[in-house]
């Protein structure tokens, strides 16, 4: 069979068109991220064995033992989508000499809690979920946030 430039160009265009159509059919729709105002964390005190779940509003700080947890964003997907829940979090430790030391900055993933959980000598903290609301009252603008998750 002899290919002429006219024939091979048309064949190539048809092949590319079929490939684009197939890609559009096979490619899943990209799910929109949902920005949530509340991040839900689970923490464990390794000394007492106490496990606690606590809510933190975005850009607010809650103290869990000697740790201060501050989520900056918390994203999830619609319920009918594959779950993908992540939060950008900063965790500080209050040292024995009352200094604050950053021990974690990064993304936490609820579906893979062991991937980027905070593993401290006494406390572990990981993201459980992102929520649209909380039973904990929202902090008022201009007032410092209470230590809602503080443990003794």
List strands and helices in order, with pairings:
Blueprint: H1 5-26, E1 34-35, E2 38-45, E3 51-57, E4 62-64, E5 67-76, E6 86-94, E7 100-109, E8 118-119, E9 123-131
Antiparallel strand pairs: 1-5, 2-3, 2-9, 4-5, 5-6, 6-7, 8-9
Describe the structure.
The chain has 152 residues and is mostly beta strands. The chain has one helix and nine strands. The protein has one helix at residues 5-26, and strands spanning 34-35, 38-45, 51-57, 62-64, 67-76, 86-94, 100-109, 118-119, 123-131. Strands 1, 4, 5, 6 and 7 form a five-stranded antiparallel sheet that branches. A four-stranded antiparallel sheet has the order 3-2-9-8, with no helix packed on it. The radius of gyration is 24 Å and the shape is globular.
